[in-house]
Specification:
378 residues; Rossmann fold; 2 domains; nine-stranded mixed sheet
């Protein structure tokens, strides 16, 4: 089966899924208003997917241009022109312009429409990889991992409120007068039970998922229904959280993370009798592109408390890649899953940078090696 055939199959799968989701989410589709809402949701999702296909093709063509570039010759050196210039002349296009503008534009538009990207895997280092795709489809194919630590989408109630309050950021890069129209992804309510089930099945140890306080009970019920041992709820205290700009009540000053044990036997962690309260600034060292980015120091502390060096951590909701950055800096192996092309690219860049930087005090993950039975023989 060729790449085009696979793309068509995936597109039809997206169309079918979009229609089913539209009917499930818009229960009043028998009314004119409901039909209009369902139609818009289908069109947005399919349009975003087509744009994502175009983005992948643009990147593929760019890679082919680089691969097919002729070697540097004396003629190029004398003229001071790169080898790729010959390709640009023959095909009548400016690959430099396409490299800078087209992928960026398609990424922005695909993210705006909420489309699905063409699934693929990026190997960033030994024991470190990123998967582009839907976690409900990708995670069951990976087999067991040691732990799952991630930040699923927020509850639908918060998504509905976006646009009624000012930007989540207060570090000066985005002003309070600028409002978010959307977080760029759907709420978790419709898929929470299925997400919990595949996470419990895949984890051989801890399952740690961030959520608002309003979502703790729902996550607990779905995780327990999937067969995991419920443990407790962590609290992330945010000293620099945004105030409540309308002044009609208290602002959110903390966020929760639910924890459950999916492995066999007793729970294992490194914190002794430590309380599950983590105090970290929201905006300190923030990369800044993702609207709900988690601080790397927060993820690093959680990883240090709940995992051991060399273990395999999976974040099925990778977003900006903070979990992956913290994992590789602290000598853990990592698998990330992200369905948005924009955030997938961001995660890859940040994790690659963390791998290059490393940590002088921590041994980085190494690829397992099969020893010969003759090793050590006299």
């Amino acid at each position: 089966m060729g790449q085009t055939d696979r793309a068509y199959q995936q597109l039809w799968r997206v169309v079918d899924g979009a229609v089913r989701d539209a009917f499930r989410k818009h229960g009043d589709y028998l009314t004119p208003k409901g039909r209009h809402s369902a139609k818009r949701s289908v069109v947005k999702r399919v349009t975003g997917t087509v744009l994502s296909f175009a983005l992948q093709e643009a990147k593929r063509q760019r890679e082919l241009a680089v691969t097919d570039a002729p070697p540097i010759t004396g003629e190029h050196q004398a003229a001071g022109t790169p080898p790729a210039a010959g390709i640009q002349e023959r095909q009548g296009c400016d690959y430099g312009h396409a490299q800078k503008r087209l992928p960026r534009t398609l990424t922005r538009q695909a993210d705006r429409y909420g489309g699905e990207a063409v699934s693929h895997v990026e190997h960033l280092g030994d024991g470190v990889e990123m998967h582009l795709g839907d976690m409900l489809e990708v995670l069951p194919t990976l087999g067991k991992v040691d732990h799952i630590i991630g930040d699923p989408p927020y509850e639908d109630e918060l998504h509905a409120a976006v646009g009624k309050f000012a930007s989540l950021r207060n570090d000066g890069k985005v002003y309070a007068s600028q409002k978010l129209d959307s977080l760029g992804f759907d709420g978790v309510n419709a898929d929470r039970a299925r997400m919990a089930a595949v996470c419990v099945e895949a984890s051989d140890g801890w399952l740690i998922l961030f959520t608002l306080a309003e979502g703790v009970r729902a996550w607990r019920d779905d995780i327990q229904a999937a067969g995991a041992k419920w443990d407790t709820t962590l609290a992330w205290v945010k000293p620099d959280a945004s105030p409540r700009f309308n002044g009609q009540g208290a602002a959110r000053g903390f966020e929760n993370a639910v924890t459950a044990w999916c492995g066999k036997g007793y729970r294992s962690w490194n914190g002794g009798g430590k309380r599950g309260v983590y105090t970290h600034l929201v905006n300190h060292g923030r990369q800044g592109e993702h609207p709900t980015e988690k601080p790397v120091p927060l993820m690093a502390e959680i990883i240090a408390d709940f995992t051991k060096p060399g273990q395999l951590i999976c974040d099925p909701f990778c977003g900006s890649g903070s979990t992956g950055v913290a994992a590789v800096r602290h000598g853990r192996r990592f698998i990330g899953i992200e369905q948005s092309q924009r955030w997938f690219d961001l995660s890859c860049r940040r994790i690659e940078a963390a791998l290059k930087q490393g940590d002088m005090f921590i041994e980085q993950p190494k690829r397992p090696e099969q020893l010969s039975i003759l090793d050590g023989a006299a």
